[in-house]
């Protein structure tokens, strides 16, 4: 009788496998939620039963672990969006704006951060986890689940849209390091203009070192990410408050009418500038993609209490600076800081952009890993770089492909990156549209 039951089970499994092979939609296998192993001196090797799901972590249950995850999320998730003040404002304007234009553009940035990042992502989208995991393919798994009563054609469409969104996110993995690192190094031009010809070579060297360091894994260098980024956000906040107090009329940017009126007034040029405005939210996909690494509450806490106030007031400070002197539009971020702090801020900005690039690269590894699990990507050799966090992985082939693409962007397209708002408008509107559709 036992033999018959086993045979029956085997037959059922064979039938399921055959049905999956005949289906044109890959089987969406949910990845297990990322876990953090509690290792103590008395128990150096934790067992599987001692793993703690990050989705269960709240301030009330385990405050010390919650605080640690919040600090780490500041370094890993928000590095990209936290370095956007380096280049957003001077990307929007290719001319010297008047005070009303400054207020209107800053208002667009503020309400983009409020509506898109705070409400849409930090509050709503973080609720849509797939067994604790987030990201494009995790959401695809929710929508194509057998319990969801959708037609086969609709599910196939969702899968195709998810693949396109993932491809664009990988493109962001090559674009973001190039833009971020170049924007940080260009701060040298204020104090040392003669170094302009060395900007690109220095950027290439930093990028090569960054990608070569990936083999060591984020677990070895991630311990320093949180404190460095916290210092960065603290600097942004202080500089922004200081500049805002000099021209408090910039606070009119909190009025949504200023943003709407600016678009009506600028018309076609204002539409193209929306691409630059979207750059203020670049990297926000990491809020959802890295959900399984930290949990929704640490991510929300980091955004609302640290990151959001810092970038918000820094944009206000840059707007206040341009109201005082519109000729400083070439690099309002570095012009807004005191002269004595230029070199420390250049060093801190370079570290912050490297960390921001690290976050995007790590997200690309996770994305490819999920795609392989869904049988939507050719298999690559994957290395797990951490004994405690299952989500920290390294894929050599993807790493080197991204490195080559980033170097090509830096060497061949750095001028186009800064002069074409049309490029940003198309790329980021398409990316947002795909995320909405998914």
UniProtKB/TrEMBL annotation:
Annotated TM spans: 103-123, 156-175, 195-214, 221-242, 270-289, 301-323, 343-368, 389-413
Q: List, for all copies, the residue spans of the domain called K+ potassium transporter integral membrane.
A: 70-416
Instruction: State the UniProt keywords alphabetically.
Output: Membrane, Transmembrane, Transmembrane helix
Show the ranges annotated as biased composition (Basic and acidic residues): 1-10
Any idea what this protein is called?
K+ potassium transporter integral membrane domain-containing protein
Its domain of life?
Eukaryota
Mind telling me which InterPro entries this protein's record contains? K+_transporter (IPR003855), K_trans_N (IPR053951)
Residues of the region (Disordered) are 1-29
PANTHER family, A to Z: K+ POTASSIUM TRANSPORTER, OSMOTIC STRESS POTASSIUM TRANSPORTER
One cellular component term from this protein's GO annotations in UniProt: membrane
Report the GO molecular function annotations.
potassium ion transmembrane transporter activity
């Amino acid at each position: 009788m036992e033999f018959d039951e086993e045979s029956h089970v085997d037959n059922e499994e064979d039938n399921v496998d055959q049905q999956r092979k005949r289906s044109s939609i890959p089987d969406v296998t949910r990845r297990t939620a990322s876990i953090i192993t509690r290792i103590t001196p008395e128990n150096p090797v934790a067992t599987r039963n001692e793993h703690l799901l990050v989705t269960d972590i709240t301030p009330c249950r385990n405050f010390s672990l919650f605080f640690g995850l919040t600090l780490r999320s500041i370094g890993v998730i928000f590095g990209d969006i936290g370095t956007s003040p380096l280049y957003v404002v001077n990307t929007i304007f290719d001319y010297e704006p008047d005070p009303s234009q400054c207020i209107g553009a800053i208002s667009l940035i503020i309400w983009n951060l409020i509506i898109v990042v705070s409400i849409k992502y930090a509050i709503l989208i973080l609720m849509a986890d797939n067994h604790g995991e987030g990201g494009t393919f995790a959401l695809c798994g929710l929508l194509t689940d057998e319990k969801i009563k959708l037609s086969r054609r609709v599910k196939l469409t969702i899968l195709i849209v998810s693949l396109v969104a993932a491809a664009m996110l990988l493109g962001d993995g090559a674009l973001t390091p190039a833009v971020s690192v170049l924007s940080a190094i260009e701060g040298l031009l204020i104090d040392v203009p003669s170094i302009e010809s060395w900007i690109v070579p220095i950027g290439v060297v930093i990028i090569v070192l960054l990608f070569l360091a990936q083999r060591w894994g984020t677990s070895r260098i991630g311990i320093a990410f949180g404190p460095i980024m916290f210092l960065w956000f603290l600097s942004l906040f202080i500089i922004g408050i200081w500049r805002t107090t000099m021209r408090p009329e910039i606070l009119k940017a909190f009025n949504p009418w200023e943003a709407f009126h600016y678009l009506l007034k600028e018309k076609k040029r204002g539409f193209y500038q929306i691409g630059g405005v979207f750059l203020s939210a670049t990297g926000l996909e990491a809020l959802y993609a890295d959900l399984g690494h930290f949990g929704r509450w640490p991510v929300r806490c980091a955004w609302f209490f640290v990151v959001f106030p810092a970038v918000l007031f820094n944009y206000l400070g840059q707007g206040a600076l341009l109201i005082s002197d519109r000729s400083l539009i070439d690099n309002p971020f570095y012009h807004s800081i005191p002269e004595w702090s230029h070199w420390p801020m250049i060093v801190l900005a370079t570290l912050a952009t490297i960390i921001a690039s690290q976050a995007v690269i790590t997200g690309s590894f996770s994305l490819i890993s999920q795609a392989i699990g869904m049988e939507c990507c050719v298999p690559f050799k994957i290395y797990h770089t951490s004994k405690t966090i299952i989500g920290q992985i390294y894929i050599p082939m993807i790493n080197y492909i991204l490195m080559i693409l980033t170097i090509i962007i830096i060497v061949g397209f750095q001028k186009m990156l800064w002069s074409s708002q049309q490029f940003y408008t198309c790329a980021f509107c398409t990316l947002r549209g795909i995320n909405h559709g998914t």
